[in-house]
Amino acid sequence: MVCGHSSRREFARFLQLALASNVETNYHIKFAVDTGAITFAHHAEIKAANNEVRRMLAALLRRVREELSPEDGEVPVTNSTVAVNTSEADE
Questions:
Q1: How many other CB atoms sit within 10 Å of the CB of residue 20?
Q2: 83 in Cβ contact with 57 (< 8 Å)
Q3: Are 16 and 81 in contact (CB under 8 A)?
Q4: Could you read off the pLDDT of 46-81 as tens digits, one per residue?
Q5: CB 69 within 8 A of CB 5
Q6: Of the candidates 14, 15, 32, 74, which lies 20 to 30 Å from 23 by C-alpha distance?
Q7: How far is it, in rounded angstroms, from Cα 76 to Cα 69?
Q8: Beta partners for 5?
Q9: CA distance 24 to 5
Q10: Which is higher by pLDDT, 47 or 84?
């Protein structure tokens, strides 16, 4: 069992979903500043923290994928994991 998941493959999939949620959160942060719900200074602080979480999730996902055994099967690459490897998620 890996962090409450039945396999490393399932855990990797969970991390992919977490990354997708993180990228979506960046959009919501931008929307909040665009609508005046938060100040630009607060936006920068929240975005920096969110980006740090994204980097940690991406590093953990890479590590989990490296440790997958053949029995675990392949973890499909999704748009959320592609965004992690580009600067697109930082915008």
A1: 16
A2: no
A3: yes
A4: 999 999 999 999 999 999 999 886 665 555 555 444
A5: no
A6: 74
A7: 15
A8: 2
A9: 24
A10: 47
Dihedral sign from CA coordinates of 73, 24, 26, 5: negative
Cβ–Cβ contacts within 10 Å for residue 19, how many?
A: 24
What is the per-residue pLDDT across 61-70, written as a single tens digit (0 to 9) for each? 999 999 886 6
SS3 sequence of the chain: CECCECCHHHHHHHHHHHHHHHHHHHHHHHHHHHCCCCCHHHHHHHHHHHHHHHHHHHHHHHHHHHCCCHHHCCCCCCHHHHHHCCHHHHC
Residue 13 tokens, joined: 């999939």
Q: What is the rounded distance in angstroms from the CA atom of residue 83 to the CA atom of residue 89?
A: 6
Which two three-digit tokens encode residue 72?
């675990």
The total number of residues shown for the chain amounts to: 91
pTM value? 0.69
CA dihedral 56, 62, 63, 65 (to 10 degrees): 140
